[in-house]
Amino acid sequence: MNAAQDWEDVSLFTPYLNDQALMYDFANCLAVQTFLRMTSLPFSVRQRPNVEFISPNAVIPLLKINKTLITGFDAIVDFVNKKGVILTTHLSETQIADMRANISLMHHLLKTVEMYILWKHDETYAKVTKPRVGSVYHWPLSSIIPFMRRRAALTKLADKEWDTKTMDEVGEQADKVFRALSAQLGTQKFLTGDLPTEADALLFGHMYTLITVRLPLTNITNILKKYPNLIDFTKRVEQLYFKQ
Amino acid sequence: MPEKTFHKAQTIREKAPGVPSIVEAVQFHGVRCTKNDALVKEVSELYRSKTLDELVHNSHLAARHLQEVGLMDNAVALIDTSPDSKEGYVVNFLVREPKSFTAGVKAGVSTNGDADMSFNAGKQSVGGRGESIRSSYTYTVRGDHCFNLSAMKPFLGWQKYSNVSAAFFRSLAHMPWNQSDLDENAAILGYSGQLFDKKVLHEVKLNAIWRTLRAGRDAAFSVREHAGHTLKFSLENAIAVDTRDRPILASRGILARYAQEYAGVFGDASFVKNTVDLQAAAPLPFGFILAASLQAKHLKGLGDREVHILDRCYLGGQQDVRGFGLNTIGVKADASCLGGGATVAGVVHLYRPLVPPDMLFAHAFLASGSYASVHARNVVQQLQDSQRVSAGVGLAFVFKSIFRLELNYTFPLKYVMGDSLIPGFHIGAGVNFL
């Protein structure tokens, strides 16, 4: 990674956000966009059907600066920080550690909840996951690829020992994440006070996705409704960075 | 069969044009599972032989055809006089049917350093009418596996060379010219036959291929943009006139072949690709052979999507423009070659048979190749500007009509900065050489 080069000709490659991207991918793509908007760095979004293959390590989204490719939320934040654009200068070390913990909570627990719903819940798989994954392929790939992706995703869930969880237990895990984030947010404008950080970008990414996504089951959104400050936060960030 | 002495056909060949003959019977010895109707189709023409000369000639053709279509492993025609009449003859075919089942195991190391293990099994003349089935399964140490399952059915008949075939396979390939790997899962249906009184060879292929391109670490972004799954459905049609005496290294004769591939009804790929091959060979004094080949390809994208990097035209390598890396002549991005929309390559060869005369040849060549990009506005101009030339001397080894091996010392003569040149000694092996 060459952080010394100029911030020129910067493109963010994402899947087709409206028709293709799955919840956690959508959340991460939105989070990166929000983060870059928070830093006011210019970039253009390019939607491609094969971003996971364009990406050198299958992680999305993919940020391209000249010939440098950076993939995933954490690496992109790191790269921007190395260029001297840092959103956390006002924070103490403890606050930074808290923020990192929040990010990790979202990356792991929230993403796993989303994975469980998309791949393990049969009706969601049939009505949402399969059509979205298959949308960029012709038949018969439009059936084969979702099937293969599902097999891989279920193996991952089994590795985390989530394959035997019930939907209620998954709901409890989601509730745990929302409760922690809601408590951290409190009545503040952002998670750590009046200024946004990368954790806010990621939180917005996931919250916006969960609020707007159309799923055959509503338990996660119902749980989320118990935390109105998270919903207000999402509306606020959307207003700030996406409505000009 | 009763004990009799038979003589070679030469003893009476062309000495009996006026001797009338009536074929009274055709008998087969050694048939176990070949179907009767298949044999009848193969030899019924023999009954029309009017003279002994014709009969000798036709019996020989029939015996050869039985082997070539895969009905028999070995067939010899013996012509006997009939005990009943003076002009009557009986043709006996001594045949050996193909083995009921063949199987093999092989371990090897592939070109990209991966060890593999492969199993294969096949059966000739499965239903007794020349149908063949082949299968193979390869397992590599890295955990990849490939398979190939193919079936072929010949159409039987007097001197008929046509068949239908179907193949299903999964294959893996490394493509060093654009630093990527390719997985292919394919189903291919084919027909091959002849047109216009058997003068023109005709081939039709229907391809359905699921391709997964995986760009490697060093691949240019332009290659990455094409990575992922694509589906290609295409129809290929080829016609050819071939008067060469040997397909792999001809000493006389010409080949003219025109092939067209159309993709676009289903799947992601939509293009028309035209390929013209011309080859000519002629003997010179002192045993020298002069040969020349030319191949021109043109690709036209249909629809608004850019033609996929896997469908483009490539040049370079031991089989066409020697002295350049395999498929490295084309539009470049970083170290990757993105291919072109049109290519023209020509090679002039001078061969001199060594010992053994039909296998080993001294070989000198001059090769040229040019390309035009997929978006070229002026294709002819680009072809002129992008010319690469190389020359070399070496040895060419031909094993029957199965494969050709070349050992060349090559000098690239015309090239530009950034070309992947491989001057010096190199070995090329394969079937299709320009």
TrEMBL record, chain A:
<dbReference type="GO" id="GO:0001401">
    <property type="term" value="C:SAM complex"/>
</dbReference>
<keyword id="KW-0496">Mitochondrion</keyword>
<dbReference type="GO" id="GO:0007005">
    <property type="term" value="P:mitochondrion organization"/>
</dbReference>
<dbReference type="InterPro" id="IPR019564">
    <property type="entry name" value="Sam37/metaxin_N"/>
</dbReference>
<dbReference type="Pfam" id="PF17171">
    <property type="entry name" value="GST_C_6"/>
</dbReference>
<keyword id="KW-0813">Transport</keyword>
<dbReference type="InterPro" id="IPR033468">
    <property type="entry name" value="Metaxin_GST"/>
</dbReference>
<feature type="domain" description="GST C-terminal">
    <location>
        <begin position="126"/>
        <end position="244"/>
    </location>
</feature>
<dbReference type="Pfam" id="PF10568">
    <property type="entry name" value="Tom37"/>
</dbReference>
<keyword id="KW-0472">Membrane</keyword>
<protein>
    <recommendedName>
        <fullName>GST C-terminal domain-containing protein</fullName>
    </recommendedName>
</protein>
<dbReference type="GO" id="GO:0015031">
    <property type="term" value="P:protein transport"/>
</dbReference>
<keyword id="KW-0653">Protein transport</keyword>
<keyword id="KW-1000">Mitochondrion outer membrane</keyword>
<dbReference type="InterPro" id="IPR050931">
    <property type="entry name" value="Mito_Protein_Transport_Metaxin"/>
</dbReference>
<dbReference type="InterPro" id="IPR036282">
    <property type="entry name" value="Glutathione-S-Trfase_C_sf"/>
</dbReference>
<dbReference type="InterPro" id="IPR010987">
    <property type="entry name" value="Glutathione-S-Trfase_C-like"/>
</dbReference>
<comment type="similarity">
    <text>Belongs to the metaxin family.</text>
</comment>
UniProtKB/TrEMBL annotation, chain B:
<dbReference type="InterPro" id="IPR000184">
    <property type="entry name" value="Bac_surfAg_D15"/>
</dbReference>
<dbReference type="GO" id="GO:0045040">
    <property type="term" value="P:protein insertion into mitochondrial outer membrane"/>
</dbReference>
<dbReference type="GO" id="GO:0005741">
    <property type="term" value="C:mitochondrial outer membrane"/>
</dbReference>
<keyword id="KW-0812">Transmembrane</keyword>
<keyword id="KW-1134">Transmembrane beta strand</keyword>
<comment type="similarity">
    <text>Belongs to the SAM50/omp85 family.</text>
</comment>
<dbReference type="Pfam" id="PF01103">
    <property type="entry name" value="Omp85"/>
</dbReference>
<protein>
    <recommendedName>
        <fullName>Bacterial surface antigen (D15) domain-containing protein</fullName>
    </recommendedName>
</protein>
<dbReference type="GO" id="GO:0033108">
    <property type="term" value="P:mitochondrial respiratory chain complex assembly"/>
</dbReference>
<feature type="domain" description="Bacterial surface antigen (D15)">
    <location>
        <begin position="128"/>
        <end position="433"/>
    </location>
</feature>
<dbReference type="InterPro" id="IPR039910">
    <property type="entry name" value="D15-like"/>
</dbReference>
<keyword id="KW-0472">Membrane</keyword>
